[in-house]
Amino acid sequence: MVRLAILIAIIGVFLYIPLGLHVLAKSAPQADAKDTSAIDPDAIDAVKRMAAYLHTLKSYQIIDDVTQDDVLEDGLIVQSTSKVDYLLARPNRMRIEITSDERHRLYLYDGKNFTVWARLVNYYATVPAPPTIGELFEKITDKYDIELPLYDLYNWGNKDEDINKIKTAVDIGPSTVEGVTCEHYAFHQEGVDWQIWIQLGEFPLPRKLVITTLTDDARPQHSDTLSWNLAPSFNDGAFAFDPPPDAKRVVLEGQQADATEKGK
Amino acid sequence: MKRSTQIFAIFTIIVLTSGATLSAQRGGRGGGGAHGGGGAAPRSSARTSVNSAPTRSGNQGANRAANGNQGANRAANGNQAANRNVNANQNVNRNSNVNNNVNRNTNVNNNVNVNRDVNVNVNGGGYYGGGGYYGGGCCYHPVATAAAVTAAVAVTAAVVGSVVNQPPAGCATQIVGGLAYQNCNGTWYQPQISGSSTTYVVVNAPQ
What is the pLDDT of residues B50-77, one digit of tens each? Predict the structure, then answer.
């Protein structure tokens, strides 16, 4: 009996050590910790610096490899992947192409109209759009329930209150993403934990983002792994929609049918 | 000596177990979670942004309602199975929430089987459509099913405002006022891009 107990204890120790003492040592912030000492000001500054840098970029292209968890009714997590090709030119042009197993979507914004093309069913919808990308994000999300990818990227740092929502901020340390050396930070705020990998050096670009949703016990995650092109070549045609021969026009849910511009 | 060793062992196990759990929770580098198939619509999805308000919450509520209905479906199917066993009849309760089906059939082949369900369910097969996101149980088609019931019992037509993930088979695409519609034997479905999927809403015949 004594031997058995000792044996179990020893096995336990060996199982445990490789599981990551050092992770434990970093301490687990309480989910509702409000202690400001849980905020590492360097981590906050890193996000601010990244946001300020992103605002200086006039145009860029990103290839985003996305993973997205859905939680089934019984709590099982199902992960899906997609690829986003994202071209943005301030202040009022954007092209987003999303490819996944389930769908192939193209979003186009030329400063006047916003078009969605669902390629697999070959339907498209065009609605009048606000004059800037920032307003477009808000309108499309609010009115049409379409979540454009990389909302955070464009909007980071626009509102101080977003930064103020952070309750825990930790600098995890250096980490490599796709061969690029980054600094890895972890944050907690109401409803989400999120982690970001910011490129070290004079171009503080986000290279990876992981968002963990806390409002479901299963804690589903979303991740973006970003490849950047800061000197994309494009012309106006990149943002204009020229319907393919058999494409048929439909409405966006939430769009008043009589508000559509007819007969385009 | 013996007892203290036992206590030590137990203590060690407790500490290690809780520690392992904690590091599993927080050691997020691996992340993810168990994969698995399943025949149900998701109850939730990971948020895709840190700062954008999660606008889907309303729809998630709708989804949950839809799932609730699915539960009801399963219950109904349970009845179906029972019926089949007893009566060996094919009463196709394929759909629908809380059928008032009074299967008061006594003995073989003498079944009444009313099935007078209208089944509006504007929430439709749920937000995650696109024609069966996770195979199996997701995305049933209330209107289509109502139509099937109609064929058998001749009670209802598709209800204007109903939303389905796909129109029934055998529809013709027609363009009215520059917009596409599906004309399904006189029932008109208007395709719409709905969040990240495409759905079809039953409308009155377009002018």
Answer: 887 554 433 333 332 233 333 333 333 3
**pLDDT tens, A216-260?**
999 999 999 999 999 999 999 999 999 998 999 999 988 864 444
Enter the pTM of the model.
Answer: 0.63
Residues 175-194 on B with a CB inside 8 Å of A are 175, 177-180, 190-194
- Report A:209-228 residues touching B (Cβ under 8 A): 209-213, 215-216, 218-223
Are the Cβ atoms of A250 and B192 closer than 8 angstroms? yes
Q: Please, which residues 108-137 of chain A have a Cβ atom closer than 8 Å to chain B?
A: 116, 118, 121, 123, 125, 137
Report H helices in chain A.
2-16, 21-25, 41-56, 133-144, 151-155, 160-164
Give the class (CATH, top level) of A34-259. Answer: mainly beta
- Amino acid B195: pLDDT: 84
Q: CB-based contacts of A53: which residues, under 8 Å, 6+ apart?
A: A203, A204, A205
Whether residues A6 and B5 touch (CB distance < 8 A) is answered with yes
Say if the Cβ atoms of A71 and B19 lie within 8 Å: no
Query: ipTM score of the complex?
Result: 0.74
Question: Domains of chain A: which residue ranges?
Answer: 34-259
Q: What is the pLDDT of residues A53-97, one digit of tens each?
A: 999 999 999 999 999 999 999 999 999 999 999 999 999 999 999
Give the per-residue pLDDT at A38: 92
| Whole-number Å distance between alpha carbons of B12 and A10 | 9
